[in-house]
Amino acid sequence: xxxxxLIHGTASAQQLKELEVLTAATGISEYSEHCWQLxxxxxxxxxxxxxxxxxxxxxLDFAWLPAGLKLTDFGLLVMDMDSTLVTIETIDEMADYCGxxxxxxxxxxxAMRGEISDYDTSLRRRLVLLxxxxxxxxxxxxxxxMNLSPGAERLVQAAHAAGLKTLLxxxxxxxxxxxxxxxxxxxxxxxxxxxxxxxxLTGTVxxxxxxxxxxxxxxxxxxASLGLPTSAAIVMGDGANDxxxxxxxxxxxxxxxxxxxxxxxxxAFNFCGLDGLLSILR
Length: 282
Description:
By secondary structure, the chain is α/β, with parallel strands linked by helices.
């Protein structure tokens, strides 16, 4: 299948020319807003590493994708929540309300980088530190700290307009995912249920933990319910616990992600918003 090299971002004419020379392309054409196609770029593993290094230094994003790929080629858009659909790690912000943010955030970072292989254990280690936290703190996290990532609303609206269903699947918590589902009119949302007694956290999760394996299973089940192969799904994530569901997808997008995720995704967005996807899928 023919592939095309797309450059996304605020690129100068000089930068585009340098990329054209770097990839032995035969020309440059505007592909979409803030996105350019390098025509007949000569790309192999060595060239891709060179393009990646150049784009990183120039704060540009690039995609090496099958030519002519469109949003309507897909039927399901799947998004992780923390540091993907929203800009924060919600459990870290919850921990801030009981003075344990640094301790919890260190575990979160290690888990997302893939340095803790057992996600269930890492989640339980964090939650036990939050035992006794008043649920009003969760409401404050949502109202005061939970911001959508740039381009999130535009991406979701475009996906729905193109006929795609949307799935938010998260190792976070239903307290937040259900609010986001309603706010963005998402088709589906799945995440963990926090244990609560008398409006305080018990430091536990009720029921099955939504870990990497469960995320992948939810994507499979959702696709099956829609009569779609998993290759008809776009999956966006940032952490190691997203990799298994990303591997099922026809297109996987690492969004401002950890290195282990960027290395395995179809495309990595390091600088643009979530709606950068709309620039590469016309």
